Structure to design on (248 residues):
C-alpha cells in the first residue's frame, strides 16, 4: 500500500513534542510524502498552545521543502455530547480536524460512555477523522461507531504509534479489528504517524502492513494519494485549496 500523506503529526507547540514544522517538513520530504498535516494538540491538553495558534496557521507557507502543508489540529473529545475544544469560529481556518480521547480531558469511562461520545462527535460534523481508536482504555462499540462514520464520511485513523504496541496490551489486535470493521462498512481510512519527533514523520510501515494484511481497498484509504486526500477534504465540504491544484 502506497501512502503519500501523514495526517497526524506534532510540533514543539504541543508542549510535549520536540521538532519544529520545518524539521517535520524536511523529514516528510525524505520519506517521500506529498502532504504533511500538522496537528498539534488543542487547548485543553496540558501544555497545548493558545487557540490563536491554530487560526494563525494561515501565515504558514502552503509548501515547505516541496511538501504541501495542511493546517490541522488534534482536538480533544470533551464529553458524551461529542463537544471538542475548538471554538466553532475557528473551523473555517482549519483544513483538517482529528478528534481524539486523551486522559487529561476525558477520563476513561465505560464502553457505553465512549460510544455515545463518538456517535455525537460524528453527528456534530466538525471532525474529519477519529484519532487512535485502537487505545484499549477507550473501548467502544466498533460496529455502531464505524458504521456511522462511514455514513457521515468521517475517516477512521490507523495510528502507526498505537501499532508499535509499546504502551498498552491489546492495542495491536484492536487496530486490526477496527480496520476489518471499517472494511465491512466501507468507511474511509486515514494513516497517521502521530510523530512527536521528526524522525517518526511518515513512518507508517506498521499501518501499511495492517492495510495490506486486512486487504483494504486503496480507494478507501484517503492517504493513498494526494489527490484522494484532497478529494476527501472536498467531500467533507471544504473549498479546494488553490495552491494544491497541481496535487489534486
Ligand atoms: Zn492523541
Ligand atoms: Zn497526536
Amino acid at each position: 500500500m502506497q501512502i503519500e500523506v501523514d495526517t497526524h503529526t506534532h510540533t514543539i507547540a504541543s508542549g510535549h513534542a520536540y521538532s519544529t514544522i520545518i524539521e517535520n517538513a524536511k523529514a516528510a520530504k525524505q520519506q517521500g510524502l506529498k502532504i504533511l498535516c500538522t496537528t498539534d494538540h488543542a487547548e485543553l491538553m496540558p501544555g497545548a498552545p493558545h487557540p490563536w495558534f491554530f487560526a494563525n496557521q494561515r501565515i504558514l507557507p502552503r509548501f515547505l521543502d516541496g511538501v504541501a502543508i495542511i493546517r490541522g489540529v488534534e482536538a480533544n473529545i470533551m464529553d458524551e455530547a461529542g463537544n471538542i475544544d475548538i471554538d466553532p469560529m475557528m473551523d473555517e481556518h482549519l483544513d483538517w480536524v482529528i478528534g481524539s480521547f486523551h486522559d487529561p480531558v476525558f477520563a476513561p469511562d465505560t464502553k457505553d460512555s465512549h460510544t455515545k461520545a463518538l456517535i455525537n462527535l460524528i453527528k456534530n460534523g466538525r471532525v474529519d477523522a477519529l484519532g487512535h481508536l485502537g487505545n484499549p482504555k477507550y473501548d467502544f462499540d466498533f460496529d455502531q461507531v464505524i458504521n456511522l462514520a462511514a455514513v457521515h464520511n468521517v475517516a477512521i485513523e490507523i495510528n502507526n504509534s498505537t501499532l508499535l504496541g509499546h504502551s498498552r496490551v491489546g492495542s495491536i489486535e484492536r487496530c486490526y479489528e477496527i480496520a476489518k470493521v471499517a472494511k465491512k462498512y466501507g468507511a474511509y481510512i486515514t494513516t497517521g504517524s502521530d510523530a512527536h519527533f521528526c524522525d517518526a514523520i511518515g513512518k507508517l510501515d506498521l499501518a501499511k502492513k495492517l492495510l495490506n494484511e486486512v486487504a483494504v481497498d486503496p480507494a478507501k484509504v484517503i492517504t493513498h494519494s494526494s489527490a484522494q486526500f484532497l478529494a476527501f477534504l472536498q467531500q467533507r465540504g471544504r473549498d479546494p485549496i488553490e495552491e494544491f491544484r497541481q496535487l489534486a
Summary: The helical segments are 21-30, 52-55, 111-124, 142-151, 160-163, 171-185, 205-214, 226-235. The chain has a mean pLDDT of 97. The longest helix spans residues 171-185. The radius of gyration is 16 Å.
